[in-house]
Design brief:
Blueprint: E1 3-10, E2 13-20, E3 26-31, H1 44-54, E4 59-62, H2 81-94, E5 100-106, H3 108-115, E6 123-127, H4 142-153, H5 156-163, H6 169-180, H7 188-198, E7 204-209, H8 213-220, E8 229-232, H9 242-257
Parallel strand pairs: 3-4, 3-5, 5-6, 6-7, 7-8
Antiparallel strand pairs: 1-2, 2-4
Helix pairs in contact: 3-7, 4-6, 4-8
Length: 258
């Protein structure tokens, strides 16, 4: 395995990418979420790329326009279709043996792939898709509150605190009231994502970290019976827990091998 850094064109701009080489005919395209650079938080995406490449599959990561080492204006995930398509073309040019590309994104990178109808990828692994319309909202969705209280009820230490009178009952009552509310109707972003994904003809997997608020908000705005959904208990947003990391790797490798 070799790691190579390169540049490629997206319209009139120059974007930066990194490829981890491997002999496989199926490859993984990692799309970064938020304004995160291609190495990922605490180099998480770089480490993921190395693990997948060691398993025999080439991996390509990139900075979209206006992020990291790439030129241009950062217009956000909603307008990143052309960036993803340009990265996909560069990936295929750098690894000409590739016959099939799996697109992977976490958070709004998953949303970007959904909005773009896969952006030319052959399969998708969509992690904790972002559906929150008002990012500045302080109130978590009812589904997230219910999940938090369910976890507390299973924790002997939390139950002991309640019995010992160390829990703020007023705050508890407020939280229980919020948990009892119905989930809000899907917003326009969730509906756009559903429409975009419906146009994708390849296989898609939606992987959710059960302890992640973003994933919980997604479920409150999505059909929970969607057979494409798989949930990892105890996992958080960035899949930093060793068990969660291994679980995610397995899901990605399954998509690459299928």
């Amino acid at each position: 395995m070799n790691r190579l850094h390169l540049t490629f064109a997206c319209e009139d701009w120059t974007l930066a990418g990194t490829i981890d080489t491997a002999p496989g005919s199926n490859g993984l395209l990692i799309v970064s979420g938020g304004n995160e650079i291609r190495s990922g938080a605490f180099s998480g995406q770089a480490q993921l790329a190395a693990r997948i490449a060691r398993a025999g599959f080439p991996v390509f990561r990139f900075d979209r326009r206006g992020v990291g080492d790439s030129d241009g204006e950062n217009k956000g995930f909603r307008k990143s279709r052309k960036d993803i398509q340009a990265a996909l073309a560069a990936f295929r040019a750098m690894a000409p043996q590739i016959e099939r590309v799996v697109g992977f994104g976490n958070c709004d990178a998953a949303s970007a792939l959904m909005l773009a109808g896969g952006a030319g990828c052959d399969a998708l692994v969509l992690s904790n898709p972002w559906t929150i319309e008002d990012a500045g909202s302080a109130a978590p969705p009812p589904a997230a509150v219910r999940a938090r209280y369910a976890a507390k009820l299973k924790d002997p230490k939390e139950l002991a605190r309640l019995v010992a009178g160390k829990v703020d009952l007023r705050k508890l009552a407020k939280g229980m009231l919020q948990a009892a509310r119905r989930n809000r109707r899907p917003g326009s972003l969730a509906l756009e994502m559903a429409q975009g994904l419906s146009q994708f003809e390849g296989p898609a997997r939606i992987v959710l970290a059960a302890a992640d608020r973003t994933a919980q908000a997604f479920e409150s705005a999505w059909d929970r019976t969607d057979e494409r959904i798989a949930r990892c208990p105890g996992a958080t947003h960035a899949w930093v827990e060793p068990e969660a990391r291994d679980w995610l790797d397995k899901r990605i490798l399954e998509a690459l091998r299928s």
